Amino acid sequence: MGTPTHCPYCALQCGMALHDENGTGTVRVTPREDVPANGGGLCQKGWTAAELLTVPDRLTAPLMRRRRDAPLEPCTWDEALDRITAGIGRLRALHGPDAVAVFGGGGLTNEKAYQLGKFARVALGTSQIDYNGRFCMSSAAAASGRAFGMDRGLPGPVTDLAASGAVLLAGGNPAETMPPFMRHLNEMRDDGGALIVVDPRRTATARQADLHLRPTPGTDIALANGLLHLALAEGLADEEYIAARTTGFDAVRTVVNAYWPERAERITGVPVPLMREAVRLLARARRAHVLTARGSEQHARGTDMVTGFINLALALGLPGREGSGYGCLTGQGNGQGGREHGQKADQLPGYRRIDDPAARAHVAGVWGVDPDDLPGPGRSAYELLSALGTAGGPKALLVFGSNPVVSAPAAADVEERLGALDLLVVADFVPSETARRADVVLPAAQWAEESGTMTNLEGRVLRRRRAVRPPDGVRTDLEILGALAERLKAPGEWSTDPEEVFGELRRAGAGGIADYSGITYDRIEAEGGVFWPCPSPDHPGTPRPYLDRFPTPDGRARFVPVEHTGAAEDVDADYPVYLTTGRVLAQYQSGAQTRRVRPLAEAAPGPFVELHPDLAARLGIEDGAAVRLESRRGAATVAARLTDAIRDDTVFIPFHWAGEGRANLLTNPALDPVSRMPEFKVCAVRLTPVHRG
Ligand code: SF4
């Protein structure tokens, strides 16, 4: 039957079994029927996942530069670890503990995310830790925390969607990013339910929708407020629910009064009849969901954009009603768990605030340190990257499970900052673009070579199981952190056993928002996953957390008024076209993994810009021709792909590639004031055809 586990990629965490054919090391993937998220389905990425185990440039020995300008060369583990600890010691002595920073990832297991946060605070004593999840769904997390007192992906099991009567999906394209998820929406539609998609592009998901609203990029707040205005005008709000289960509605009512339909249409470009139909479909369904994803979250007002959609869901009485609610389609494999256990700049395990004295005392007790010795909040991901090597900024960076050279906004500046460091250390299993710039590269075990837990987009804690032995010379991230902690003479225990680390994580998170106290490896095994919060061994877990009350001090969800202000950077005469970025089916995130999988590389071999034929004609750009795009941050050159699936004032580039087609050379690092999310989804560019001789 193979080893039952889950996919290495996205937050759906599809169940799969890995079969090591007769112990030959050739691994085959089969989908699992017993995992509700995918129910026997996989996408191209999942089907080909085993090829990750045999990528040709797999790292199997540490690499080090003997001199700053020397190439990376193989070295022993002792040499690599000595170099790292000597560098850390020197920089800390010169500049203090915040001279050393840590950058984590939303694909790390819960155990690694936990251990990385502890390593930063205890072994390094630094406040400077954040992770790439800040670039993913941090706006949804911030908006959910503000509205509901908690942030936990979907409001219930993913199978609830199939029983929904209507789903409004804002800024998500699961037909490409997580195709097996579509089975739940398709079941809903087969039963007469309606899918409403909000997206400037006619994506693969939008093509399957019953209704497609195509707003101008950056206008989601006006759209959400316009929808709520219509709901109120048509008497579709659930006044009884609003009175019984929420606070703050009057202020929202006042704000949305000014978003009358014609004004909302003028700002967003979405025709009033479409908005009206969307509201009616949602309000008249017995069960309904409002979902957001990166398209509505990766903005300099991303928290408010999500809040606009949450306000709509609350006014319709959806959150806390069985089979209904607001949810976020988390992106990275452990996007949910990765933000719960302390690798965020402002948080401790259990999703606790790092500036909360009670949380500090509790966690310090588990770690065996004095709470006063724990550092306070640090810089958020982009602020951290842009401070590297500056006066007062970190001088060393340790990167685990991330490739910011490709995934960070204003990527050329980030690359320059990495180059200004005294010490860059990267742990990875392939030489990613970030690893190639490192002073020391540590070869790490990957996905199927180690055990751990992941928390999927439902908030369900799952087990990833080791299916094959890692190659000789490779260590797990837990072993790397343990070895470094030992050399740094860090206090406390530094287990390298995932189950033991999970036990410590449960103690550290006990009593917090993300309480895993009652979850064990055995329970996950027996029950096929456990939903958090699960505060005790006899607790059944919490598939639908808001049915009785919201975890706010008064038990009510909070409306928050939000006003449209537009994108941080609007189009003008110099940069007259909107750029939006996103994903394609055959690639995943920075592409460090999927670009190395042959069938995926063949299916999606390189970057392109999607533009409308009318825009292309105006600019003299032909299908397939090279196009140079310029923004105020930089320039990229990619192939043109003409399609009427995009507005004629907007172009789209997927962000999975490095080199001259790197989308993030163009993107705007303007940050959301609450979530510190950069504005990946909209900036202003100009396009010119490239005539290559
Ligand atoms: Fe993997 Fe996501 Fe594809 Fe499922 S949808 S197979 S989890 S990449």
- Report, as a whole number of angstroms, the end-to-end distance: 56 Å
Instruction: Please compute the radius of gyration using only Cα atoms.
Output: 24 Å
Shape: globular
Strand-residue fraction? 15-25%
Number of helices: 23
Q: Which spans have pLDDT < 50 for at least 5 consecutive residues?
A: none
The percent range for helix content is: 25-40%
Oligomeric form? single chain
**Domain module count:** 4
Keywords: 4Fe-4S, Iron, Iron-sulfur, Metal-binding
Domain 4Fe-4S Mo/W bis-MGD-type: 1-57
Protein name: Nitrite reductase
Pfam families: Molybdop_Fe4S4 (PF04879), Molybdopterin (PF00384), Molydop_binding (PF01568)
List the helices and strands and how they pair.
Blueprint: E1 3-6, E2 15-20, E3 27-31, H1 44-47, E4 63-65, E5 72-74, H2 77-95, E6 100-104, H3 110-124, E7 129-131, H4 138-148, E8 166-170, H5 174-177, H6 182-190, E9 194-198, H7 204-207, E10 211-213, H8 220-233, H9 239-245, E11 246-247, H10 249-256, H11 261-268, H12 272-284, E12 288-292, H13 294-297, H14 302-315, E13 325-328, E14 347-348, E15 352-353, H15 357-367, H16 381-387, E16 396-400, H17 404-407, H18 411-419, E17 423-428, E18 440-443, E19 452-455, E20 460-464, H19 477-487, H20 498-509, H21 521-527, E21 530-531, E22 557-558, E23 577-582, H22 598-603, E24 608-611, H23 613-619, E25 626-630, E26 635-642, E27 650-654, E28 668-671, E29 678-679, E30 683-689
Parallel strand pairs: 6-7, 6-16, 8-9, 8-12, 9-10, 11-22, 12-13, 16-17, 17-18, 23-27, 24-26
Antiparallel strand pairs: 1-2, 2-3, 4-5, 4-18, 14-15, 19-20, 20-21, 23-30, 25-26, 25-30, 28-29
The structure holds iron/sulfur cluster (SF4).
Domain 4Fe-4S Mo/W bis-MGD-type: 1-57
GO cellular component, one term: membrane
Keywords: 4Fe-4S, Iron, Iron-sulfur, Metal-binding
